[in-house]
């Protein structure tokens, strides 16, 4: 079984200059998962890239957590459509030889 690595949210907040309330709001909109452990509140290390993207969107574009939820859903849909386009191009490529 693979061991998960966790990061304390206090370290994330300190490293990114964030208030804990911002992370709690992200959790409220189910954009991140915060776990309670004996050593405090933590997030899974695998969530860091997504969290850092959300932080950049929040800071650079001044998007609030409810807007971040909409952006995340749109980005996911774009990714799905890109996958579908790749699959369709692959299928079309088989017919181009005939």
Describe this structure in words.
It is a single chain. The protein has 98 residues and is mainly alpha-helical. The protein has one domain: Multidrug-efflux Transporter Regulator, Chain: A, Domain 2 (Orthogonal Bundle). It is built from four helices and three strands. It has helices spanning 9-16, 20-28, 48-61, 65-96, and strands at 6-8, 35-37, 40-44. Strands 1-3-2 form a three-stranded antiparallel sheet. The termini are far apart. The model has no long low-confidence stretch (mean pLDDT 92).
Spatial sequence of strands, sheet with the most strands: 1-3-2
Number of strands: 3
**How many domains would you count in the coordinates?**
1
* Percentage of residues in DSSP E strands: 5-15%
Largest sheet: 3 strands, antiparallel
Using the coordinates above, name the CATH class.
Mainly Alpha
Number of helices: 4
What is the CATH topology classification name?
Answer: Multidrug-efflux Transporter Regulator, Chain: A, Domain 2
Bulk shape: elongated
Residue stretches low in confidence (pLDDT < 50, at least 5 long) are none
CATH architecture: Orthogonal Bundle
What is the structural class? Answer: mainly alpha
Report mean pLDDT, rounded to a whole number.
92
